[in-house]
Specification:
The complex is a heterodimer of chains A (about 625) and B (about 200). Chain A contains 21 helices and 23 strands. Chain A has about 625 residues and is α/β, with parallel strands linked by helices. The chains are: A alpha/beta (about 625), B alpha/beta (about 200).
Chain lengths: ~625, ~200
């Protein structure tokens, strides 16, 4: 459940997560509508909205994908209702098709797009995309909070800006802002305005020639005004007379403040687009040296170079020539890289380095949970088809199938991409291809790819791994689950009905925890021509565990019958975290086992059995 | 002066819960706070350190600078060693739950999971003081579930003078956050406060 402090009383000082502070900002701004598709590091914005929507009186939904979510928010904003969507960098790519034209036509109610980038790929992956470029492509302002306080304040500001200039506004965070913790004093929550009206306005909402040139011009004018009107979001601190300046934004500003440098002037930007020419000109005018601190792309740095040509051509500019364009910054990295430029000492960590080098620690990578239905499906498909198959991967917990012992995701590109790429491979190669896709991904971006596959009908097996939830981002419902974001019952849209409606007749639905059933179905479908779909259905074990816990129930635990002395080496190819191997001996950790029973189906008959509870356990 | 706590462990062990206890208790005591809580893929059996920094003056970086941790809480022994990067023997205390969670990859990649003595030897050069406690086991035996090890570890850190927070504020947070598990968590905290090596 949501952190109750998000709804705390005005004036209370609370500790929140960056994403929760964004939620609070939206509440204080009277937001009436939100629609999202989960994507970490932004997922907790929607998760928190879902938990509080009912009692706070605004509308929230988990939409089928980011484009649909943004469009829904736009509809609300067309009618004068304040709306916000939160997405991750790759979610922004999905939504962009609709976002760019909305910048031209504009909105009535404030429309805010919270995009969370993930330099370092802590919690997502795909690429270290810098979404600040999108603000420039799409001609929309972008606010960039550096800390908790600003997450809340800039969210409120984004709504005001959006309404004042009738333009969607980006609120950009990175993982270290979205997932940072801090304290803020709460402001007043405004009653959400949830009802509005679409007022017809001929030619206002069309992006067609010849109006688009006029609209383009208009949007550029808005950006000019925003650049001037919001100059106050930038500030200068530190030694104002210094000839050395450091210009920072986002979390980089927090790092440079942490260093507590003396004798330098520090500039902080609040808007990463448009950047104020006047502010930057004044900031660099009397400097000899400037260091620009920004993670990822040299966007502010390029802007400084452009302005310095006229204002201060002799200025020595440091940025990506001393700091990396890849990954995240940290306090010590910044100290080390800027030390030679500003003449401070580096810290000596040579003794620690030597000790760290001596350590030999076992690898720990992400692993499928004990009892995960995906592990069982991967195992069965490989048993049925062998390893000489091209395994098309997609986005979801099952990307962990990349790792040993499965290595059954030969490529993982983007939501739904497994099917389009599979199609291309099949048209130029005779190789066998099996595509894996999750249930939420199927609704998000899988359907169009599947229609294209079916229409062209290469021989392909598509395995839909249906764990009845969007698991990786924290258990969000989707149209297949039969309930919505706020827990209301809905009529579930069955994946098999959708697949059948495309004219696909080779469909088998199996229990993801039944090895025999899955293996038989895979072999049967493999013998058929054209597109086949296997739906391997079994609830996410993490979710089921939570449901059982609420009811005060527990999974049965399995144990290895040591007296049997059977060959259990097949378990190595199953890799369940509950199964521990000491030398050549196997045992099951009862604290970790979540009773899926699949290991007992893989092992020789009778070698693994449900554990009979001891008298004490049965009573406890 | 900022006090820096790093909580390390394996996804699903309650690393986030432990950091929430400390974060909220520090807030109750009126501290300025910053920190990080990473979510997502790391939760699936991976490693997820969280940073908590608090003090009476403003704190800036959400992450602890290298070598500046005052306390490293290791919910899993190897993960405590893995984050010695943030430790310094002049400054850092360790409280480590000795219950090992052996990665499946140890078997798959033919690696070796080090012995407890080896892990202690790795941590000692980075530690001003280190307490190794079998908290998960003790909580399993006395309270029926190893998950209460989180609250017990916090109790140990307080009673050993390694965490400058009041017992009463931690109790208040446990009552607020753990619903029907509050009593067991309070008992676990007590086990920690009474713990002697």
């Amino acid at each position: 459940m949501a952190n109750p402090d998000v709804l705390g009383k005005v004036g209370k000082r609370v500790a929140l997560l960056g994403n929760e502070a964004i939620v609070r900002g939206a509440l204080e701004a009277g937001m009436g509508f939100s629609a999202c598709y989960p994507g970490t590091p932004s997922s907790e914005v929607g998760l928190t909205f879902a938990d509080i929507a009912k009692q706070s009186g605004f509308y929230f939904e988990w939409s089928t994908n980011e484009k649909v979510a943004f469009e829904a928010c736009t509809g609300a904003a067309f009618c004068g209702v304040r709306a916000l969507t939160a997405l991750k960098h790759f979610g922004l790519n999905v939504a962009c098709d609709s976002i760019f034209p909305i910048a031209y036509v504009g909105v009535h109610g404030g429309l805010v797009i919270n995009v969370a980038d993930d330099p370092m790929g802590h919690s997502s992956g795909q690429s270290e995309e810098d979404s600040r470029r999108f603000a420039r492509i799409g001609n929309m302002p972008m606010l960039e909070p550096a800390n908790l306080q600003e997450c809340r304040d800039f969210t409120k500001l984004a709504f005001e800006m959006s309404e004042k200039y009738e333009i969607p506004v980006f609120l950009r965070t990175t993982t270290m802002v979205a997932h940072s913790v801090g304290t803020i004093r709460l402001g007043k929550i405004r009653k959400p305005k949830t009802k509005g009206r679409f007022v017809k306005d001929y030619m206002r909402y069309y992006c067609i020639t010849p109006v688009i040139q006029k609209m383009h011009e208009n949007v550029l004018k808005k950006l000019d005004m925003i650049e001037k009107d919001y100059e106050c979001l930038n500030r200068t601190e530190g030694d104002l007379g210094s000839r050395t300046g450091i210009l920072a934004l986002g979390v980089s500003y927090q790092y440079i403040k942490e260093l507590g440098l003396k004798g330098v002037k520090i500039g902080k930007l609040g808007l990463s687009y448009p950047i104020s020419r006047k502010f930057v000109s004044n900031f660099i005018k009397n400097l000899e040296t400037i260091i620009v601190l920004e993670e990822l792309e040299p966007i502010v740095e390029d802007f400084v170079r452009e302005i310095a040509k006229d204002v201060n051509p002799k200025l020595k500019i440091y940025g990506k020539n001393i700091l990396p364009r890849v990954g995240e910054f940290s306090t010590e990295m910044i100290r080390e890289r800027i030390a030679p430029v500003i003449g401070i000492k580096k810290k000596d960590f040579s003794r620690q380095e030597a000790e760290l080098k001596k350590m030999k620690l076992p690898t720990r990578k992400a692993v499928l949970c004990p009892g995960c239905p995906h592990r069982s499906t991967f195992y069965a498909v490989r048993e049925a088809l062998g390893e000489n198959v091209v395994w098309a991967g997609d986005i979801g917990c099952y990307i962990i199938g990349i790792f040993e012992p499965f290595k059954m995701q030969d490529f993982v590109i983007a939501m739904g991409a497994s099917l389009g790429i599979t199609h291309g491979i099949k048209k130029v190669s005779e190789q066998k291809v099996v595509a894996f896709m999750g249930d939420s991904t199927f609704f998000h971006a899988g359907m169009a790819g599947l229609v294209n596959l079916k229409y062209n009908d290469p021989k392909v097996l598509v395995v839909i791994m249906d764990n009845s939830i969007t698991a990786m981002t924290g258990h969000q419902p989707h149209p297949g689950t039969g309930y919505n974001a706020i827990g209301e019952k809905k009529e579930a849209i069955k994946i098999e009905d959708v697949v059948r409606s495309f004219g696909i007749t080779n469909i088998r639905i199996v229990n993801a925890f039944n090895q025999k059933e899955i293996q038989a179905a895979v072999k049967e479908l493999d013998a058929k021509p054209g597109v086949s779909v296997l739906i391997s259905r079994g609830m996410c074990r993490l979710l089921l565990n939570r449901i059982l816990k609420r009811k005060g129930q527990k999974f049965p635990v399995f144990e290895i019958m040591q007296s049997e002395r059977r060959d259990l080496s097949r378990l190595d190819r199953f890799a369940c975290p509950a199964i521990i191997k000491d030398g050549s001996k196997y045992r099951i950790d009862p604290e970790v086992c979540w009773g899926c029973s699949v290991c007992s189906q893989i092992a020789p008959a009778g070698a693994i059995k449900p554990k009979v509870p001891t008298k004490k356990e049965a009573e406890g | 002066m900022t006090f820096n706590v790093l909580v390390t462990g394996v996804g699903g062990e309650g690393v986030l819960f432990t950091s929430v206890i400390i974060t909220r208790a520090a807030n109750i005591e009126g501290h300025e706070l910053r920190g990080t809580q990473l979510h997502g893929l790391a939760q699936r059996g991976g490693q997820i350190p969280t940073h908590i920094r608090f003090g009476k003056e403003d704190v800036f970086s959400p992450t602890i600078p290298r070598g500046e941790a005052d306390l490293i809480i290791g919910m899993e022994p190897v993960e405590a060693a893995r984050y010695c990067y943030f430790a310094d023997r002049e400054r850092t205390s360790f409280v480590v739950d000795t219950y090992p969670i052996i990665p499946v990859y140890t078997m798959l990649l033919g690696e070796k999971y080090p012995s407890m003595d080896e892990i202690k030897a790795m941590i000692r050069p980075f530690a001003k003081k280190a307490v190794f406690a079998d908290a998960s086991h003790i909580c399993k035996e006395k309270l029926g579930d190893p998950v209460y090890g989180n609250a017990m570890i916090v109790g140990i850190a307080i009673s050993c003078g390694m965490l400058p927070l009041k017992k009463s504020s931690v109790e208040e947070v446990l009552k607020q956050t753990s619903g029907k598990y509050a009593e067991s968590n309070l008992n676990a905290l007590r086990l920690g406060l009474e713990y002697r090596e």
